[in-house]
Amino acid sequence: MFTNVLIAEDHESASISVRKSLEDLGVKHFKYVYYCDEALAMIQKANHEKNDYDLLITDLFFEEDTHPQKLSGGAALIAAARKIQPGLKTLVFSAEHRAAMIEPLFEELGIDGFVRKARHDAQELKMAIERIFQGRRHFPVHLRQMIQQKNAHDFNDFDTAIITLLAQGILQKDIPPYLKKMQISPSGLSSIEKRLNLIKDRFNFTKNEQLVAFCKDAGLI
Questions:
Q1: Which CATH number characterizes residue 131's domain?
Q2: pTM of the full predicted structure?
């Protein structure tokens, strides 16, 4: 198991939960900070002393207070920490749930795991830490489900155009003139209704609002 862990979390209750999970896993040496700048300074110091951290656990969003910070949040902290210690394992523990925000953390930052702050998060947190220690990556269950859903339909330009208009508050019956103005074909109301019904059937949605919310969360619009 990891022997040297750093926690960056600005909410004390969440920090206590993470520390308890580490203790349950037998991790004896861990430190915690409330600011990203402070976390980076500790990573720099540990690296200079050749006593690198094995794992960084960080939130994504940190509330602003009277202490000005150079690093804007957890993503910036991970990017900066990796420049100092490229092999540092990273686990994000955040209330963020949107796939459009989480997927880039894996694809662009190369994080090792993500756990959503929610019911039973302590259990999943311990599972994620164990997986990362084993050299595996931990994808949250809801993200895997959303990716599977997203792959259930191949969204084309017509789909994204009408869903984007719905998201902007345009009523379904009023969409045709907008499509004509955008030179998107087909633009008839019947074609719009059929396409929306097809997509909703594939995702088992009953309302346009559900489809719009899903597409926003998945980063499709």
A1: 3.40.50.2300
A2: 0.70
DSSP 218: T
Query: Read out DSSP for 104-142?
Result: HHHHTS--SEEEESSTTHHHHHHHHHHHHHTT--B--HH
Same domain, 158 and 126: no
Pair (91, 136) in one structural domain: yes
Classify residue 11 by burial, with Cβ atoms within 10 Å: 0-12, 13-18, 19+: middle
Which stretch, 1-15, 33-47, 88-102, 109-123, has highest mean pLDDT? Answer: 33-47
Q: Same structural domain for residues 192 and 134?
A: no
> Which pLDDT value is given to residue 149?
63
| Number of domains the chain is built from | 2
pLDDT of residue 150: 64
Please say whether the beta carbons of 81 and 122 come within 8 A. Answer: no
Helices 208-217 and 157-167: angle between axes, nearest 10 degrees:
110
Lowest mean pLDDT of 23-37, 72-86, 139-153, 167-181, name the range: 139-153
Do residues 175 and 192 make contact, with C-beta atoms less than 8 angstroms apart? yes
11 part of a folded domain: yes
**Structural domain range at position 108:** 5-142
- pLDDT reported for residue 140: 78
Residue 143, C-beta contacts closer than 8 angstroms, at least 6 positions apart: 99, 102, 103, 114
